[in-house]
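Hello again, I could really use a second opinion on something today. I've been staring at a protein lately and its backbone has me curious. Please have a think about how the structure follows from the sequence. I owe you a coffee for this, so here goes:
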Amino acid sequence: MTPKARGTIHSVADRRHRSQGTNQITIPQATASDPSTTSPVRSAWDGNGTSPPAAMTRIPHRIHSAAGSVRAIREARARGVRVTAEATPHHFTLTEDAVAGAAGNVRGEPYDTHAKVSPPLRAEADRQAVVAALADGIIDAIATDHAPHGPLDKQVEFVQAPNGIIGLETSLALTLLLVRNAELSLSCAVERLTVGPARCLGLPYGTLSVGAPADAIVVDAEREWKVDPARFYSRSRNSPFAGWTLRGQVSMTFVAGKLVHEFEAMFERPLEKSGGAK
């Protein structure tokens, strides 16, 4: 994308920009705050699989990780309740087996604290229900629920470990994994990562419309990479996806029309041994 004055999208030509290489696509960013970490849009309803009270006419936002909560959202919307919902990449990728150290093809130790999250990881049927709700629009947005913790926080007994994982740098590739598995269309994946979160918060982001903020990423959808938390920009390393081989990487990031990130520059950074939460 060619940066323009005032950092806005100015023409159809901007939207149709393609980087060199057949595997690269341009996606608008949802520059809105991550709904999972924005307390004003949290709901008082616990979303535990029961329908919201009949008196409720608006539920600002919920995180959904179980078939029961997805069903409750469907019922609420059928009754005219105004509700938005999100899902995280770890909830639509992993199951409770990850706690036992069986995350994907990577085998780890049982009671893996890197898989301790809230809401907790659940069964395969719940994962499938979340994916189906993403596909049909019952869940509006994908949000990382990025929760960094220092190494000592997680190197304790499972019951004592804090909930949460870091998710920013694996979120795109894990979403594209749903696309490759024919569980989600590419257009739906893009919408849930961009305009979906922005709509939940009533913000004008996540679109390449003329006049919109010129925030976009260029993605190499076929770039294969191995998850190494030591190379993450986040100073925390608490990811259950360490050692996974994923496809799809952000090549460039534009904010207000300015190039602020390039893939090659990221991997020129020296490895860091450890760091505080960020």
Remarks:
- The longest strand covers residues 216-226.
